[in-house]
Amino acid sequence: MKKWIIGTVLLLCVASLSLAAPWKIGVVGPWQTEGGMWLKQAVEMAAEEINAQGGIRGRQLELIFQDDENKADKLTTAITRLAVREKVDFLVGGFSSGAVLGALENWARYKLIWLGTGAASPDVTQRVAEDYERFKYYFRVGTLDSVRQGMGIGNFIVDHVLPTYGVKKIAIISVDLVYAKQIAEAAAEICEANGMEIVYRDYFPMGTTDFSASFRKAEEAGAQIIIDAIVTDDGIQFTKQWYDLKVNAALIGAIAAALKPEFKEQTSGKCLYETSVYPNGGPAPLTTQTLDFVDRHVEKYGNFPGFVSFPAYNTLYVLKEALENVDDPDDKDQVIAALEQVRFPLGGDKGVAPVAFDENHDLVYGGQWANGIVFQWQSDGQWRAVWPDDYKTGTWEKPEWVEW
Fold first, then answer.
1. Pick from 292, 255, 55, 289: nearest CA to 174
2. What is the pTM for the complete model shown?
C-alpha cells in the first residue's frame, strides 16, 4: 500500500514538473551582423516581458540561440541541432532569403512551426502555396516581402504625390540585386498602371561611388521622381550625391541605411528630403504599443530597433496569442489553425506592428494590416512617418530645390 502511495506521489510530481517545463524556443540568425543583433535583442526583450507576466499557459519561455551566419548550410545545421538535440517546441528567426530558402527542405522534415523574421523573398511563402501540407509550419511574421515593399512605394506615389503635384515621369536608379529589383519594379508597375511613365532605368553594381552620370541621365529624360531600391550601404553615398547635386527629381524608394537615426550622421546631414519605405515597422503609431517599444528598446540596449526588430518582437506575442486559444497546445494542427487566425489590428494593443496572415502564411498587405510605412528625413532634420495617413507623424515635403 505504501509503495503504491509513494509511486502515485512520484508520478504526480513528474507530471507536475512536466506541466511546468518551459517552452523551448529555437532562435536562428546571423548574430555577428547588425540585423542579427536587432533580431536577438527584440526576441530577448519579448521573452523577458512574457516570462515576467507568467509565461504562456503557465510555462516560461527558454530561448536557445543558434548562429546561421546568413548561410543556407549553417542554417540547415542549426535547425537540425535545435530540432534533434535540443528538441525545441518552436523556431523563430531567419534573416537572409537565400539562407531560408536553402534550409526549407531540410526543416520541413521536422514539422517544426517556424515564425519567420525576415527572408523577404516572395519565394519563401510561395512554398506554402505550392505544397501546403509540407510547408504549412512556416509563417512570415515579418518583414513585408520585397514585392509588397515596392507596392508601398508605388501606392504612396500614386496616392499622395501624383494627385498633389501631378508628376508623370519616373526614373529607376537602383543597386543591381534581385531583391532590390523586385522592390523597384513592383513600384514601377503601380506607377505605370496609373498613367505614369518610366523614362529611365539604371541598375548599378554594388560598390559604385559616383552616381552623377545616372542622375544627369534621369534629369535629361525628364524624370520628376527617382525610385531607388538600395539595400546596401551604397545608399549613403547615393543620397549624399543626390543632395549635393540638387537633382531635379524627388528621391522616393527603399534605402535600407536610411531606416535608422545614424543615417543623418552617416550622410553628414545630407539626408534631408530622402524618402524610404519601412517594411511594416518603424517609429510610428502602428499599434498602441509601437512607440513605447521603440523607447524601451533604446533604454534597454542603447540602440534604436532596426527593421527586423519589429517582427522579431512580434513573433513571441503571435505565438502567445495562438497558444492561448487552443485546447491542446501540443497539437500542431490546432496551433497552426490558431496562428492563421491571429490578428493584431490597427490601433490595437497587441504587438508592435499589424499582423494578419493570408492563405500562404504571408502578411496580409494594406489597410489595417501590414503596410510599407513611408518615412522622410524632413527639412528640420527629423525623421517622420508621412504615409499611410493612419500612421503619419508628419506631412511629406517636396525637396526645396525640385521644380515641378
1. 255
2. 0.93
DSSP symbols for 30-51: -TTSHHHHHHHHHHHHHHHHHH
CA distance 156 to 1: 77
Q: Is 330 helix (H, G, I), strand (E, B) or coil?
A: coil
Q: Which of 347, 342, 338 is nearest to 364 (CA)?
A: 342
Q: How far apart are CA 177 and CA 93, in angstroms?
A: 23
> Coil, helix or strand for 254?
strand
273-284 tens-digit pLDDT:
999 999 999 999
Would you state the cell numbers that stand for residue 262, as one nine-digit string?
545614424
By CB atoms closer than 10 A (0-12, 13-18, 19+), residue 343 is middle
What pLDDT was estimated at residue 19? Answer: 57
DSSP 8-state symbol, 84: I
- pLDDT tens-digit readout, 197-252: 999 999 999 999 999 999 999 999 999 999 999 999 999 999 999 999 999 999 99
Peptide bond into 279 cis (omega under 30): no
Interacting residues of 166 by C-beta distance below 8 A, sequence separation 6+: 404
CA atoms of 109 and 103, how far apart (whole Å): 11
Task: Provide CB contacts within 8 A for 12, sequence distance 6+.
Answer: none
**The three grid cell numbers given for residue 336, joined into one nine-digit string:** 497552426
Cα(40)–Cα(27) distance, rounded to whole angstroms?
A: 8
CA distance 155 to 355: 20
CA distance 142 to 156: 20
Q: Which residue has the cell 548561410?
A: 71
Residues listed for the chain = 404
CB 168 within 8 A of CB 196: yes
pLDDT digits (tens, 9 = 90+) for 133-163: 999 999 999 999 999 999 999 999 999 999 9
Q: Are 153 and 253 in contact (CB under 8 A)?
A: yes
Residue 115's alpha-carbon distances to 73, 91, 195, 333, 388, in angstroms, are: 19, 6, 39, 15, 26
User: Is residue 14's pLDDT more than 90?
Assistant: no
